[in-house]
Amino acid sequence: MTLTWRAAWDRDDAELKYLVYRDGVLVTTRTGRSQEWNRPTMKYTDTVTPGSRHRYTIAVSDGQNTTLRSQALTVTAVADKASKTAKASKASTERR
């Protein structure tokens, strides 16, 4: 399952750390650079069991301060017949 999101921007720090949580547990961190005029797409691919349901949230840190976590995205993984991996299906946002 691949999650994508637009990079945040911080006027004091071009490089930010993104903390990705699955079901409330930190599963990875990603670091990315952005400017006000250039906010690239960030990406994380997670390996989960087909048929499983998960809630993902993301927080952003500049090294000193960390944002509150994002609204939760709840997804159910389904098997991708071509690659035999899980992908997101029927994603919906929920307030955590």
From TrEMBL:
Superkingdom of origin organism: Bacteria
What protein am I looking at?
A: Fibronectin type III domain-containing protein
Q: Which organism is it from?
A: Streptomyces machairae
